[in-house]
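Audit log entry. Action: structure prediction of a protein-small molecule complex. Ligand: flavin-adenine dinucleotide. The ligand was supplied as SMILES and no pocket hint was given, so placement is left entirely to the predictor. Protonation state taken as written. Sequence taken verbatim from the request; no trimming, no tag removal. Recorded inputs:
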Amino acid sequence: MAQLQHDSGQQLLTITGGLMIGAEHSPTFAGSVRSAHEWNLPHEVLGPDDIRRRFPQFATTDHVVAFYETAAGFVHPEESVWAHVQQAMLRGADLHFSEPVTSWEADDNGVRVTTIRGTYEAEKLIIAPGAWAPQLMADLALPFTVTRQVLYWFEPIGNAEAFAVGKFPIFIWELPDGLQLYGFPLQPGVNGVKAAFFYRGPSCNPDLVNRVVSDEEITAIRAALAAHVPALNGPLVDAATCLYTEVPDHHFVIALHPQHANVVLASPCSGHGYKFSSVIGEILADLAVEGKTRHPIALFDTARLVG
Ligand SMILES: Cc1cc2nc3c(=O)[nH]c(=O)nc-3n(C[C@H](O)[C@H](O)[C@H](O)COP(=O)(O)OP(=O)(O)OC[C@H]3O[C@@H](n4cnc5c(N)ncnc54)[C@H](O)[C@@H]3O)c2cc1C
C-alpha cells in the first residue's frame, strides 16, 4: 500500500494507533498479543486505568484490558481502489466496467470468458468476484457463505474533536458475548464516526440482498455504543449495507484452480481482506504468470475446504 501511495501520490493510509479491547483471554486481545510476539510488533498492553486515562472516550470496566499498537491505522478504500485501477491502466490494463461475466471455461489451450457483451479468449484467467464467488466458482462447491453486514456513521455527542485522528484510534472491542464492536476515528471529508459489528449478519444472495437498514439493527448498535463508547450514541448520519464472503475457517481462498492450472482463484474476504489487497494482487499476478509465488499461501488452498 505504501508503494501504491508513492506511485499515485495520494494519501491512502492513515496511521491512527489501534486498540484491541477485551477480557484478558478474549481472542481479540490475546490473539493480538500473540501475533505481536510472533512477529515482533511494537505494542503496549494497557490495564483498565491506562485505557481510562489515555482513551476516555471508551467506557471501560475493570474486567477489560487492551492491546495498543501505535503503527495501526486505516486504508482509504475508495481512493485506493481507484489508485489501483489507475496504476493498472498506466501499465496497459484494458478494464471493462459494468460488463458482468456470465460464464467461463478453460482447457490446456487457454481460457474463454463470456460476458453480456461477448466472449474473450486468453492464456490465463484470474477469478476474484467477491460475493459472487459461489456462482463463478460453482464447479468447486466451496463452502462460501455470503453475509449481509451493516456500517453506521454517527455524529459524536459534545466534543467531536475527541474522535479526531490522533485522539481516537481504530478499535475492535470484543464484548462479553463474543460479538466484536469496531470503529474508526473521524475521517477528513467523511460525515460522522464509522462503527459496526464484525460478523453479525444473516446469509444472503448478493443479487437479492435487503439494502434497507432496520430500526432493530440501529437499536442494537446504539445499545452497544451507549454502553462502550457513549459519546458515539449521537445522531445517526448514515448507514449502509455491504457483503462479506465467508468460509468456515475465515481464512482466504487464494489458489490455482485444482483442475485448471491456467485459472487462479481469489476470495480474500471473510471481512478482513481489503488491507491485504496490494500483496494479494502481487500473489495473483505471480500465480497467473509463473504458476507459483514466493508468498506463503498454503493456508489459503481450496483443498482444506473440500471433503
Ligand atoms: C462491512 C465491511 C467492512 C469491512 N471492513 C474491512 C476492514 O476494516 N479491513 C479489511 O481488510 N477488509 C474489510 N472488509 C473486507 C473487504 O471489503 C473484502 O475482503 C475485499 O473487498 C474482498 O475483495 P474482493 O476483490 O475479493 O471482492 P470485492 O471487493 O467485492 O470485488 C469483487 C468485484 O467483482 C465484481 N464481480 C462479481 N461478479 C462479477 C461478474 N460476474 N462479472 C464481472 N464482475 C463481477 C464485483 O462487482 C466487485 O467489483 C470489509 C467488508 C465489509 C463488507
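Audit: result stored. The longest helix spans residues 77-90. The longest strand covers residues 236-246.
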